[in-house]
Amino acid sequence: MIDHGSAECPFCPMPPPYFLNELAAVIFDVNPVNRGHCLIVTKRHVAHFFDASAEERVAVFDLLDQAKHRLDEQLHPDGYNIGVNVGEAAGQTVRHLHVHLIPRYRGDIPDPRGGVRGVIPDKRHD
Questions:
Q1: CATH of the domain at 73
Q2: CA Rg, the chain, in Å?
């Protein structure tokens, strides 16, 4: 069962899933950063990662692993970024737990060194 949360939440009701389990689903990002960018979203409407139950976190990580394997088979990316924004100061704009799985491809940016450190450009070590 999916908790439909609030009318303002883009994940309530949940868009058609790529695949799912009892507590979470994998959907494709409607504004992808890269080809294959998907989100692992809890079915229950919870604001962020730290509001999720232990069981929901396990379900999310299980789907994260499954999504990675499917993307490996279908798109053959060269790497991945995994991200969770928790709170407005961290860039969270949708108050429903979702984990980004972003496939990365050689040459998609000139120099990917620093990875997730790039969220604060002045702190990135090139």
A1: 3.30.428.10
A2: 15
